[in-house]
Amino acid sequence: MSDNLPIMTTVTRVIQETPSVKTIFFEEEFDARPGQFVMVWIPRVDEIPMALSAPDALTVQEVGDATRALGMVKPGDLIGIRGPFGNGFSPEGRILAIAGGLGAAPLLPLAKQHLGITFLLGARSASDLLYTNILDTCSDLMLSTDDGSAGYHGYVAGLLRDMDLSLYDSICVCGPELMMKSVLEILDAKGISQKGQFSLHRYMKCGVGLCGSCCMDPDGLCVCRDGPVFRGDILLMSELGRYHRDASGRKC
Ligand SMILES: Cc1cc2nc3c(=O)[nH]c(=O)nc-3n(C[C@H](O)[C@H](O)[C@H](O)COP(=O)(O)OP(=O)(O)OC[C@H]3O[C@@H](n4cnc5c(N)ncnc54)[C@H](O)[C@@H]3O)c2cc1C
Fold first, then answer.
1. Exposed (0-12), middle (13-18) or buried (19+): which is 252, by Cβ within 10 Å?
2. What is the mean pLDDT of residues 94-114?
3. 8 A C-beta contact, residue 10 and residue 73
4. How confident is the model at residue 174 (pLDDT cuts 50, 70, 90)?
5. Most buried of 7, 71, 81, 226 (most Cβ within 10 A)?
6. Exposed, middle or buried, 203 (CB in 10 Å: 0-12/13-18/19+)?
7. How many other β-carbons are positioned within 10 Å of the β-carbon of residue 11?
8. Best residue for ligand 1 mutational test, from 50, 226, 248 (most atoms within 8 Å of Cβ)
9. pLDDT tens for residues 17-49?
10. Which residue, among 147, 61, 159, has the nearest Cα to 101 in the 3D structure?
11. Amino acid 56: pLDDT
12. Residue 62: how many CB atoms within 10 A of its CB?
């Protein structure tokens, strides 16, 4: 498969997962490690990075023009896919997965590949929790919601307070940056930041380390080329959770 040209593939079905999230299935299957990403070409609109939530699916949350256009595709429409790119998760031994909101998308294939892992899934409310039916069957699933409508009442990082993290060898995390920063601080306080593997969903354009829009302080690591998954100890001094960057890489 060429990494450079999009493969045009036909949408086969669309599932409404939550009020603002859809999973789009397509004909082509992509062989990717959990946490790797693809660049999705939405004809006449834009190309954006997305995780694969299955070899033949991606899960989209509508936040702007491109994701809204992707959310409107129907069976029979064509989309283009370039990749997969990036490193993905490299879990070993006993695995703990921690997902906030849409962060569940790259962690779903991990749970399917490593049956029985502990999976902490958080969202704003019960209706925003992703993939609970599937995760219930393949993982030891614990839920949290900000409004207390399902599971633990509070942020997903709060579930870590009563857990013995020494039981786990790899802690794979994806979600909003502030949530990932909270998890990183907990791991750091326990002296196990190196066990954390964090998947960053930063603004990126080229996907191959050329445009520089996803470079991070202090050492210029590119999320697309060097990530999107980074070990916790590498992120401790980084800009994670401190500031974002706009389309041209400026701090915002
Ligand atoms: C490795 C990776 C995996 C991702 N996986 C998924 C996924 O599985 N499902 C999903 O719905 N989204 C995913 N995203 C985020 C998705 O790429 C952005 O939501 C999308 O690019 C926004 O485009 P837009 O035109 O709809 O919104 P815009 O109008 O461009 O922006 C709306 C908001 O999204 C942020 N944003 C814009 N572009 C990007 C970008 N290229 N990368 C990150 N944030 C951006 C902006 O800061 C702004 O807050 C992923 C991003 C990365 C980097």
1. exposed
2. 97
3. no
4. very high
5. 81
6. middle
7. 17
8. 50
9. 998 999 999 999 999 999 999 999 999 999 999
10. 61
11. 97
12. 16
CA of 94 to the centre of ligand 1 (A): 31
What type of residue sits at position 97? A
Question: Would the CB of 64 count as within 6 Å of ligand 1?
Answer: yes
How much is the average pLDDT of 65-94? 95
DSSP character for 251? Answer: B
Neighbours of 170 (CB within 10 A): 19
Under DSSP, is residue 226 helix (H, G, I), strand (E, B) or coil?
Answer: helix
Of all protein residues, the one whose alpha carbon is nearest to atom 42 of ligand 1 is: 203
Residue 14 and residue 22 in contact, taking contact as beta carbons nearer than 8 Å: yes
Q: What is the DSSP string of 122-186?
A: EESSGGG--SHHHHHHHSEEEEEETTSSSSEES-GGGGGGGS-GGG-SEEEEES-HHHHHHHHHH
Residue 249 in this model has a pLDDT that exceeds 80: no
Distances (CA, A) of 234 to 10, 14, 139, 178, 226: 39, 37, 28, 17, 11
Take residue 58 and report the two structure tokens written for it. Answer: 């991606």
The protein residue with its alpha carbon nearest to ligand 1, atom 36, reads 203
CA–CA distance, 53 with 126 (Å, rounded to integer): 20
Q: pLDDT tier at 213 (50, 70, 90 boundaries)?
A: confident
